[in-house]
C-alpha cells in the first residue's frame, strides 16, 4: 500500500543512509546542515529538497495536479518552518516512456498553482526518463532570522498552527470531511505566518509537522536538549488523539516561544488568518510526555516493515 | 542499452516537457530561467540540478563511486559554465529495498571525493525508497559576472577546453585508452578555469559540452542569434570527428571571446593547467558549419527512438 509523502527519517534504513551521509560529508561552516527542516546558507539564503515517488508517496487518491501542488507544499513548508520566505525552485522529473502528456500537463498545472500561491519561481531543473515517476524539488528562499529546531528552552510554551490530523483522517478513514480530504490533497502550510513570526523574533525553535507531533516533538526536544509536556485536550483536532499526533502530513508549524508572548503571537496569527493553539510547555527533563496518556504508536508503523 | 548521463534535451519527449514548463511557469525576473546551463538568482547566486537514473544514465561500467563522482561533476560543470563557483549541494536519493548499504556507502564516497575536489558542501536533501536508483543533485554557487549562452557576437572566436570525444571512445569502442575511460568514469570539468575566465571578463558566451559540440554549438548560436564556422582539424581529439562532436559527456567548456584575446586566454589556461583550443569563428549568418564536412549524425541517435 502506498505511503503518503512524508519527510524526515522514514525508517531504520533511511536513518542509516542519513547517518552515513552525515559521517562522510563535513558540516557547512554555518553549522546548520543536514538535519533541520532546511539548510541555512551564507548571506541569508535557505534551501530544502523533498522527493515524491509514485506508488510510495502517492497513489490514485491524488490527481496529477494534486501531486504537483503537494510537492510544492511540502517544500515551502520546510522553508516557512525555518522562518524563511520561498523564492525559487528547481525540479527534477523522472518519467516513464511512453510519455503521458496529460499527466505531465496536469502535474505542472498543480505545481504552478502552488508556486503562484507561495510566490515561487521555477528557475530550472532536469527531465529524465526512468522506470517510475519520481519528482524531486529543491526550493530556495531568503531568511533574515533563521529559527532552528534547537532553540527551545525550559519554560518556553509549545504552540501549533491550524488543525492536526486532517491528512490522517483522509488517508485512514473510509469517509472523512471534505476539509480533511482537501488538506490531504492540497495542504496549505502557513509559510508567510512562519516567516512573520520569525521576523518578529517570537519563536525560540520551530519546525513543520510532517511526521506527526509525536515524532516531530521528540526531534525538536532532542535537538534542543530538553523535554516537553503536552496537554492532549488542547490539541486542535476534530479526530482522535492518535490521528492528531501519530500520522503526519499536517504541514502545520510546531514552535516554542517564551511565556507571556500570547498577545504578540495571537495578533500576528489573526493578521495572517492562521489558527494557533498553545498545547504544552518545554521543560528541562528530557522526557516528552502526553499528559495522562501514552504516545500512540505510529499509524504508519504497519506499512513500515522493510528488510533494510 | 543504457544511455550515459547527459543533460539538455534528451529527445522529442523531453523537449515537449521543457516547452510545457516554459509556457506554464513565468520567467524569473532576472530573465535568466529555464534554458541556460544554470539559473542566475538575485544577489549573485547560481543554481543547477541534474539527475541520474540507473539503467538510463549509467550501467555496470560505472562503479557506485563513479556514479557519485559523475553526478557531482555534471552539476559543477554547469556552474562553471556560467562562470560561477560551486558552494553547496542538496541530494535526493531514491533507493530500492532491501537497502544495499555497500552501494550507498560507495556512492557517497565518490560524491564526497568530488565535493572535496570542487569545494562543495552537502547541506541537505531527502532519501526515499522507490523502484529504482534515482539520484538528483542540486548544486548552488556564487557568480560575480554570469556568462550566458546568448552573448556571442559575429567576429568572436570559438574556443574549447581540454580534449573532446573521450567519453565517446569509452562508451562506444570495445577498447579505448585508460585516459578516455578515466574521463568517462570521473570527468573533471574545468570549473575553476571557467570562473576565472568569467571573472576576467573574457568570454562573451559560454556553456559546457554535455551533448557534444554539434548539438551544443547549435544551441549557443541559437541563443545568441548568430552562426559559426568550425575548423574540424582544429578540434582537440585523439578520436574521430564524430566522436569529438556527436556524442557528448565531454564536460569541457565551449566559449566565445573577442578576437585578439589569445594571450589573456592562454595565460589563464596555463595558470589553471587547462588546455584550450581555438576551433572556429562566430558569424552573423545563422548557419552553423563544420568546414568541408557535414555534421555527423548523433552517435546516440539509435538509442533515442522512443514512442513519446
- State the largest interface: A-B, 69 and 70 residues
Annotated CATH homologous superfamily of the largest domain in chain A:
PurM-like C-terminal domain
Could you spell the SSE succession of chain A in H and E letters? HEEHEHEEEHHHEHEHEHEE
Strand arrangement across the biggest beta sheet of chain A = 7-9-6-10-8-11
Shape of chain A: globular
Quickly list its features.
homodimer, 308 residues, alpha+beta, 60s Ribosomal Protein L30, Chain: A, Phosphoribosyl-aminoimidazole Synthetase, Chain A, domain 2, six-stranded mixed β-sheet, five-stranded mixed β-sheet, 9 helices, 23% strand, globular, disordered C terminus
Structure description:
Two copies of one chain form a homodimer. The first copy, chain A, is of the alpha+beta class and 308 residues long. Chain A folds into two domains: 12-142, 60s Ribosomal Protein L30, Chain: A; 149-303, PurM-like C-terminal domain (Phosphoribosyl-aminoimidazole Synthetase, Chain A, domain 2, Alpha-Beta Complex). Chain A is built from nine helices and eleven strands. Chain A has helices at residues 12-24, 64-81, 101-118, 166-172, 178-185, 191-199, 213-224, 241-245, 262-271; strands at residues 39-41, 45-53, 85-95, 121-129, 134-142, 157-161, 203-208, 227-230, 253-257, 276-283, 288-290. The first copy, chain A, has a six-stranded mixed sheet with strand order 7-9-6-10-8-11, sandwiched between helices. In chain A, β3 (85-95), α3 and β4 form a beta-alpha-beta unit. In chain A, α2 (64-81) packs parallel to α3, α2 packs parallel to α6 and α4 (166-172) crosses α5. At the A-B interface, α1, β2, β3, α3 and β4 of A face α1, β2, β3, α3 and β4 of B.
